[in-house]
From TrEMBL:
<keyword id="KW-0496">Mitochondrion</keyword>
<dbReference type="InterPro" id="IPR045293">
    <property type="entry name" value="Complex1_LYR_LYRM2"/>
</dbReference>
<dbReference type="InterPro" id="IPR008011">
    <property type="entry name" value="Complex1_LYR_dom"/>
</dbReference>
<comment type="function">
    <text>Involved in efficient integration of the N-module into mitochondrial respiratory chain complex I.</text>
</comment>
<feature type="domain" description="Complex 1 LYR protein">
    <location>
        <begin position="20"/>
        <end position="78"/>
    </location>
</feature>
<dbReference type="Pfam" id="PF05347">
    <property type="entry name" value="Complex1_LYR"/>
</dbReference>
<protein>
    <recommendedName>
        <fullName>LYR motif-containing protein 2</fullName>
    </recommendedName>
</protein>
<dbReference type="GO" id="GO:0005739">
    <property type="term" value="C:mitochondrion"/>
</dbReference>
<comment type="similarity">
    <text>Belongs to the complex I LYR family.</text>
</comment>
<keyword id="KW-0809">Transit peptide</keyword>
Length: 88
């Protein structure tokens, strides 16, 4: 490979930033799930989150990825709201 060439599998800056958004969302969801009091519910939610992210890991269309991130953030906010209500 010639000096200065980027390998074909390298991510573009846009793809790299989008990947970071997805990973950040995944971590936030897992952190929120840790707050769920019931062990069985925690396990179910953790499995659900893993499966959703795994199922969509090969998505490449920019609009679809943005939509999934938006939906994931809405679901995260709903989970956080539910946990907050349960604690009060």
């Amino acid at each position: 490979m010639a000096a200065g060439r980027v390998p074909p599998a390298a991510l573009t800056l846009k793809q790299f930033l989008r990947r970071q958004q997805v990973l950040q969302l995944y971590r936030k969801i897992l952190r929120a799930i840790r707050e769920v009091p019931a062990e069985q519910d925690r396990r179910y939610l953790k499995d659900w989150a893993r499966e959703e992210f795994r199922r969509n890991k090969d998505a490449t269309e920019e609009d679809a990825i943005r939509m999934m991130i938006t939906q994931g953030n809405m679901q995260l906010k709903e989970l956080q709201r539910t946990l907050k209500l349960a604690k009060s």
